Amino acid sequence: MKNNKQVLLTSGEQQINLAHCTDVLSENSIACSTIENRGNLLLQQFHTQKVDEALLTKATDYMQSCKTMRKTMMEKRMVYTRLLTSIQKQFVYFENCINPDIKTSLPAQVKQQMQQSLIEKRAGQEADLRRLERNYSASIRRIEKRNLSDDENRDKLKEQAAFRLSKGRIELQNQIVPVQLVPVVTSPDGYLDLFKFYWEEQGKMLTEKEMQRLFHPMMMFAKKQAAKGVLIKSAGIN
Question: What's the average model confidence in pLDDT over 30-45?
């Protein structure tokens, strides 16, 4: 898969025992409770005692203890969270390898090739259909030019030509592979083209209420820009 390199664990990360992670988590939990108890006691003292120099010094020491303990907790857990991040990246790598929605993945390439093959097959079928119709028209012209004894023979030959055309159409129809074509947007401008296609086929037929709901984010953006003096120049917008 292109542009999505697998993240491998370093030798140091491979030697880390994740079982110890729960011990560190438990230690941090106890340390947190201890610091919180000190904080609760200080709050009670602020509410029930006169705020003097000694209480302010206790509060200052408490804040410093919080900073020191937080730094210690982060240092103790960092080795494990870094390892878990590396493991997560490995999981995501393998998931992305088989994700058809990522255009660099193998399934996406298979889907693209499948869709291209279907387009080419349909183009070939359309060419075959045009060939059948040309052959039918040529047969009718030849029949009209032939010096036949009666109209019954002429009509019979025309029916045979029409039968061949109908049979050819049915055979071509049976060859169509039922594969759903899904548009894949490959650039930001592609979304604009997609919107134009939607607008022409269906969007402009929406009700006023539906349009207001659809365009609400864009209306809010225009409103913010208007407050800055940036206005839209359009005959359809006041």
Answer: 94
What H or E segment, with its residue span, contains residue 70?
A: helix 53-97
Q: Coil, strand, or helix at residue 206?
A: coil
Provide the CB-side half-sphere exposure for 182 (13 A, CA): 12
DSSP secondary structure letter of residue 177: -
Q: Residues with Cβ < 8 Å from 149, sequence gap 6 or more?
A: none
Residue 179's Cβ-side half-sphere holds a number of Cα atoms within 13 Å equal to 19
Residue 185 backbone dihedrals phi, psi, to 5 degrees: -80, 125
Tokens (6 digits) for 11: 């030798």
Q: Which residues contact 89 (CB under 8 A, 6 or more apart)?
A: 7
Q: Are 175 and 125 in contact (CB under 8 A)?
A: yes
How far apart, in whole angstroms, are the C-alpha atoms of residue 111 and residue 117? Answer: 10
Instruction: Please state, for a pLDDT cut of 90, what percent of the chain lies above it.
Output: 21
pTM of structure: 0.44
Residue 101's contacts (CB-CB under 8 Å, 6 or more residues apart) are 108
